[in-house]
């Protein structure tokens, strides 16, 4: 598990290899990840949007951005947490993801970024 705290918001990430399949004569490697967002600050916050950079073993980079996470824009009071699961496909058996969440401090109406720590995605057989 990797973790990071930015401005009182703790991000924890756990990953899992889901399997491999073939699509259009190409290998696809499926990875799942579970993210917990914990509000350790004294203010209420809302997750507005996300930004991801996903790199595969050949250093190909895919950028993903959009509103919320898995269709939600959660509100977090101090001490609360939100956990969600998602996933991605890579063309190689390992890669990495990193990014940030755009958050809104509901007490001050200020927007701020929360860093998502870089985490590795790897099929178990690729690590020796």
UniProtKB/TrEMBL annotation:
Gene3D superfamilies: ApaG domain (2.60.40.1470). It holds the Pfam family DUF525. This is Co2+/Mg2+ efflux protein ApaG. It comes from Christiangramia forsetii. InterPro entries: ApaG-like, ApaG_domain, ApaG_sf. The gene is apaG. Residues 3-128 form the ApaG domain. SUPFAM superfamilies: ApaG-like.
């Amino acid at each position: 598990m990797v973790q990071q705290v930015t401005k009182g918001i703790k991000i924890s990430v756990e990953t899992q290899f889901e399997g491999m399949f073939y699509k259009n004569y190409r290998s696809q490697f499926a990875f799942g990840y579970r993210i917990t967002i914990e509000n350790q600050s004294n203010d209420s916050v809302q997750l507005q949007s996300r930004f991801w950079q996903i790199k595969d073993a050949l250093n190909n980079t895919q950028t993903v951005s959009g509103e919320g996470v898995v269709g939600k824009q959660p509100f977090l009071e101090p001490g609360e947490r939100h956990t969600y699961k998602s996933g991605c496909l890579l063309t190689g058996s390992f890669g990495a993801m990193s990014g940030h969440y755009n958050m809104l401090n509901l007490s001050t109406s200020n927007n701020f970024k929360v860093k998502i720590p870089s985490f590795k995605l790897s099929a178990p057989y690729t690590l020796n």
